[in-house]
Amino acid sequence: RFTLAAPAAVRVRVFRLGKWVATPFTGTLDAGPQLVEWDGKKRAGALREGDYTAVLEATALIATARVELPFLADWTPPRVRLVSAAPPRLRVSEPATLAVVVNGLRRRVVAAAAGPLALPGVARIRTLVVVARDRAGNVSELRLP
User: Fold this and answer.
1) Three-state secondary-structure class, residue 50
2) Which of 110, 133, 143, 145 is the most exposed place for a label (fewest CB within 10 A)?
3) What is the distance of C-alpha 103 from the center of its chain?
């Protein structure tokens, strides 16, 4: 979303690691609020997951304005599984924030990286609910009795 102060020729390009990936929009737009939507498709397939930068260029009569906006393409929810019941350990597939309810007690656990996570202070798991959310907002859930 963006707002144009005057009619302009607009181009939106997408880059990954400084290399051009796609041009989802090129055209002339009127002054006012604008929305450019893109489904991630390009000439040679769909966008791969990862970090990107969208570059918006708007050229009016006297100047060109350029804005760079970083974004993340991520469609895969984090996977969480129980690795060990004693001592309680989970494994998460990617960095995520976990809302954990173990034996009726709530806690928040941040996984800075993929890998195992301990649940300190818990000797035995009777019930477990884990809701994992990655930085793109994808969510998964693990429930045990």
Assistant:
1) strand
2) 145
3) 31
